[in-house]
Amino acid sequence: MRDFLHGLRPTLNIAHRGGAALAPENTLWAFEQAVTRWHADVIELDVQATADGVLVVFHDETLERCTNGSGRVDAQTWAAISALDAGWPVFAGRGARVPRLEDVLDALPHVRMNIELKAGDAAVVEQFVRTLRAYDALERVCIGSEADAVADRLFAACPEACHFFPAEALSAWVFGVKTGAATPPDPRFSVVDMPNVWQGVSLVDAALLHAAQAAGLWVNVWTVDEPEEMARLIALGVGGIMTDRPDLLRDALRAPQP
């Protein structure tokens, strides 16, 4: 079993981007609140590189939705990005800033993290892995990318880490489970981070979780913010729930289970 998964039991409270409905997403404010106030077991975050090679925690390719800046993240310097208001627009003017990956690893040295590298050539992947090693974080992170090519580079650079499925490999496994086709999972990946619903179809049920358990896979579901659906997934025994409302999930996990 990968070190990241050692000792974990369902169902985990995973704060999606730190709990994006409760604080500015992907900021230290959100991450620290998720852990200290809402008792999240894991924080989920996104990483990409600036034009001058700094790894920043940010989801979108462009700055407009979450900051008072504009343009592509990978076209900006760290100096420019670090000056932006990352609480835009709901939490504007309250001091939120885009953090570096190092800032998050340093501020939360014992917290488990699910980290997606949004994009990256070989140099970015090497820098990402080097940073995780420098902070002795490999045992507490699950890493990956939605892009299969980036996920391939990540595994090649750091096979000892816990890796989640990229999009194409995930689709192949889920399709095999749903159709009954024999599709062995890619052995490089041990965590399934998957949508709860895709194009109006509910994907996560007892049969899928049974197939995952038989294959030795851990399943995390995103993004679930409704208490009723949280309760259903908890009752099924899903590994983790990624949510923008870790406060509601905390309450759901504390409720008596059937």
Describe what you observe in this structure.
The structure is a single chain. β4 (112-117), α4 (122-134) and β5 (141-144) form a beta-alpha-beta unit. Strands 1, 2, 3, 4, 5, 6, 7, 10 and 11 form a nine-stranded mixed β-sheet that branches. Strands 8-9 form a two-stranded antiparallel sheet. The chain has helices spanning 28-36, 78-82, 101-107, 122-134, 148-157, 167-179, 206-214, 227-236, 246-254; strands at 12-16, 42-49, 55-57, 112-117, 141-144, 162-163, 191-195, 197-198, 201-202, 218-222, 240-243. α4 (122-134) crosses α5 (148-157) and α8 (227-236) crosses α9. The chain has a single domain, classed as Phosphatidylinositol (PI) phosphodiesterase (TIM Barrel), CATH 3.20.20.190. The chain has 258 residues and is α/β, with parallel strands linked by helices. It is built from nine helices and eleven strands.
Shape: globular
CATH superfamily: Phosphatidylinositol (PI) phosphodiesterase
Per DSSP E runs of 2 or more residues, the count of β-strands stands at 11
CATH fold assignment: TIM Barrel
Low-confidence stretches: none
Rounded to the nearest angstrom, the distance between the terminal CA atoms is: 29 Å
- Order of SSEs: EHEEHHEHEHEHEEEHEHEH
Q: Could you describe the largest sheet, including whether it forms a barrel?
A: 9 strands, mixed
CATH top level class name: Alpha Beta
Known CATH architecture: Alpha-Beta Barrel
Contiguous helical run count: 9
* Structural Rg: 18 Å
The helix content is 25-40%
Strand portion: 15-25%
The tally of domains stands at 1
Give the integer mean of the pLDDT values: 96
Q: Helix- and strand-based class?
A: alpha/beta
